[in-house]
Write a structure and sequence with these properties.
CATH class: Alpha Beta
CATH architecture: 3-Layer(aba) Sandwich
Largest sheet: 8 strands, mixed
Strand content: 25-35%
Length: 207
Amino acid sequence: MSAVGLNEVLRHPGVWRRSSASAPVLRTQATGCAQLDSLLPGGGWPLGALSEILFTQDGLGELSLLMPALAALTRQRRRIVFVAPPYIPYAPALQAQGVDLSLVTQIQADDGDSSWSTEQCLRSGGCGAVLCWLFKSDYAQLRRLQLAAETGGSLGFVFRPAAAAHNPSPSGLRLLVDSDNETTHIEVLKCRGGLDTRRDTRLRWNS
């Protein structure tokens, strides 16, 4: 690449150099949890990125963690899509959390189609958030979802088993949700913009 071409790339607003006075501005959607927002660069879920919710077992409130943001998106008339949830979303509970059910779509898909369906929804730009459950996935599959979220500017959420935390991932954000003595904890494993190592990245959370 010529020097002129390189300079054009470096002037792009999405490129941050260590010598720059400030990091690039991140577009986010508030999580609804002030403690979590304070840990995340930009103060919320990263827009145009894939966020992984890794959980040690079902029923730790991993879905309710997203409810404030989903409710806010439906108030903005943005569509929410559930792809291949392991359990049918309980409509009265969603409604009680402020989610407009008229803007919620559920897609039933098998293991082979759920990733493809999620990718298409994220890439379309017509969804505020897309949630999917991938119990078996690889780096290339997640990379496609990350790129689709970037293209569509949506919130992408993937629920995966905690064992996947040991594998590399292209996602913009990775959270681990676990429980110890009936207390739920959230740990930020990775986030776009980097973690503040001066602060504890693990917090208690009441679902």
